[in-house]
Amino acid sequence: MFNLPNILTMLRLCLIPVFVLLFYLPSESSNFYAACVFVIAAFTDWLDGFLARRLKLSTKFGAFLDPVADKIIVCTALVLIVEHYSLYRDVLYSHLGKFITIPAMIIVAREITVSALREWMAEIGKRANVAVSWIGKWKTAIQLLAISGLIWRANEIMIYAGVVALIIATVLTIWSMLLYLKAAFVFMVEDNSSH
Length: 195
Hints:
The chain is mainly alpha-helical. It has helices at residues 4-24, 30-54, 60-87, 98-123, 134-152, 156-193.
């Protein structure tokens, strides 16, 4: 159970309180360090999966914990930036927070939906039919980039670029969710017709 990929996953969970603490510290450099911790956590997500496949160290514990750790840190980051930007008053556009809050709600809703869908598909032995697609990978990459920029918020350009990236990630989020639902719908219809 305590192999290198699983230790990296547990490290990612331990980084969450550090990330939250840095986010709230009233220091000019704390935003940058919070963004760095978030990026390190995201990197460990990629690294533990890579090592588990390369070194053949995949475990049931790791298969459970890895997506949980990933979703916890992303949802934590989304909650923090929603809180921050709901109070943020930009000189160009005073309602910028809405363009973060609405995408954040969609992303969290998608994560809950797809997690439930994967669990249901696993129960009926069709888990492979909802494997991560290239759209899901692009969504994750752009989402992490957007969140990192919105945490760091070094200047107005970075903030606006982060908002645009978050909106793009949200479009890909909806697209990937629809693909997952389409793949699962066939089995839902079969399930209904058998009763």
